[in-house]
Amino acid sequence: MPPHEGLVHQQEYDWRDSNVSLINSDLDHKVKHQSATTEPAWNNGTIGIEPGLYIWRIEDFEVVPWPKEKYGSFHEGDSYIVLKSEKVQRKQGDVDEESEDEKDKMVHDIFFWLGAHTSQDEAGTAAYKTVELDEFLHGTATQYRELQSSPSDAFSAIFPRMKILRGGVKSGFTHVETNEENVHTDTLLRIFKHPSAAAGRDGVLVHEVEPRWECLDEDDVFVLDKGDKIFVWQGKNCSPMEKLKAAQVVNDVTIAKHVDVEVLSQVESRSKVVVDYLGGKDVDMLETTFKSQRPIPTSNERDVKKLFRLSDAEGELSFDLVKEGNAIGRGDLDGNDVFLLDSGRSIWVWEGKGASRAEKKMWLKVMQQYVQERQDAAGLSAAKVVQGNEGNGFWMAVEA
Predict the structure, then answer these.
(1) Which is one Gene Ontology cellular component term of this protein (predicted)?
(2) I need a labelling partner for 133 at 20 to 30 A (CA). Which of 4, 12, 25, 276 fits?
(3) Same domain, residue pair 109 and 79
């Protein structure tokens, strides 16, 4: 089956329907700790020891290494786990229960990335294995839930040339199959500025779309690969960054195969040839406005930050609003509890070192319930950090 078929009526994945809410029961914690020590993906002598970037795809409940040459490419029918480990220099006074001579510490970010058409089984496995990987790393990693529709700034920073492709791994569940026959099918890539670019980041995304003329948009750039020739169609309102990104994409393609490339601006009469190839032979270029919904919508950012506390100090678990507004700061956090910060652009769960076991094991359920009750937060990325292992992204969200 060609990769562009079978997706029009497919229901998009809703992460809230998965089994991730079952994570972190007492039995689950014990099972994961034991399982983490036997998972081949983690026990290769490198994970947790060597800094670097590691990616796995979920295939039939297994964690399978993703080829390095495909790093930055994700299929919307799949779920992935991404680990970024790096050594950072300790700040003065930051040596906590470690040797005074230890100058650096390893910091880990774990992302479980859920494609729009991934199955619930794959999504649940990715979430479960992410927590297991954190167990393997001694519970110090920052964990991110990444949705295809709303990549976080941290995730986009790792993949400045991210490409989202249609299709996915074959499995026994309802799934989109990739085309494995040695027969070329037309591929149309859409290149557009990341929705958060206006907020200060100049990211540009590459997203595979259906090869139909209705998918063209005059604000973006498109690359049509016909096998024997590549066309670059530049919308009349596209940006220089999008043109540059398209050139990089074409360069990547032509490294693997030598084909002719033709770059056409929408305002050129010959640009009609691309529309024709995409089934628009009857389209009047002068009378038609090319507009289509972007695969990743503009972030639903809210202005007011909110900080909630999860605590059992009174004998039973409670979840209460602590503070609202832009005056939220580090001093509002208490190491004896767990906090949820809705920054307007993302959701963060902060786990204090002195938080009780009950508070710690409830973070994912609380975040899930919060998103369910606040529909305007459903599309936001979410992450969990542990006190003492926060990254700059968290403190920027707190103090912005």
Answers:
(1) actin cytoskeleton
(2) 12
(3) yes
